[in-house]
Design a protein that fits this description.
Strand content: 25-35%
Strand order of the largest sheet: 1-3-2-8-5-7-6-4
Structural class: alpha+beta
Radius of gyration: 17 Å
Distance between the termini: 18 Å
Shape: globular
Helix content: 10-25%
Largest sheet: 8 strands, antiparallel, barrel
CATH class: Alpha Beta
Number of domains: 1
């Protein structure tokens, strides 16, 4: 199974509150029409609290679980999408920027998340250093036993997602990997943030200026408890 992260940017003439309300409400109603092809669908709403030291990638990131790359291509051409969610998008968002198509690896499972659980979650959209190949970046990242940009002693859940190679043959992806981290509460995050790694190897492999991070409020729209 693979999943996609999209990048949603609100229209300039509406507030953050209006953007999030429309995405949670009318737009989510359109999205559930795509259940036959979506295995899961989570709306990651950018939280009001910024992540210290990093710019956010967008106002929100839809996270969709799919069976294959072919399924991902079909999704945006389905009649249910073209006559529903596609028509509704201009009501609250600007044109969607490129997202990323990834395959996830659960590093730490943690307790099973139900639809209404609300741990603290942060999304890390990682960009590799300019002189580092995708393979070298992944070798460095995937063999680490702590997250790239924070400590991990108090994590509740941890997922690493790598690019799906066939989706980016001969092209550069917007980001080179995604780390999803959950903590039971803000205090647990803050304790891990205080032990963030600092090393020359990290600075070589990760472009911190191009990496984007944000706390998110999860809305689990299509979710099997």
């Amino acid at each position: 199974m693979i999943k996609s992260f999209g990048m949603l940017h609100k229209r300039g003439d509406i507030s953050q509150e209006q953007f999030h309300a429309h995405w949670r409400g009318p737009h989510a109603e359109h999205a559930v029409k795509l259940v036959p092809i979506m295995r899961r669908y989570v709306q990651n709403h950018r939280a009001a609290t910024p992540y210290p030291g990093y710019a956010p990638p967008s106002d929100g990131c839809p996270e969709v679980w799919l069976d294959s790359v072919e399924t991902a291509k079909i999704l945006t051409t389905m009649p249910e999408y073209m006559t529903g969610a596609f028509i509704d998008e201009p009501a609250f968002m600007r044109v969607r920027s490129d997202g990323v198509l990834v395959r996830e690896t659960v590093v730490k499972e943690g307790p099973k998340l139900s639809r209404d659980d609300r741990p603290v979650k942060a999304l890390f959209f990682l960009k590799r250093g300019a002189s580092v190949s995708q393979r070298a970046f992944e070798d460095f990242w995937l063999h680490r036993d702590t997250p790239l940009l924070t400590g991990g002693d108090h994590l509740q859940r941890w997922v690493k997602s790598t690019l799906v190679p066939q989706a980016y043959a001969g092209t550069d992806a917007l980001y080179d990997g995604v780390e999803e981290l959950w903590w039971p509460d803000q205090a647990a995050h803050d304790r891990d943030a205080a032990t963030a790694a600092l090393s020359l190897q990290l600075d070589k492999h990760v472009d911190r200026k191009a990496t984007r991070v944000m706390f998110v409020d999860e809305n689990r729209v299509v979710w099997d408890d």
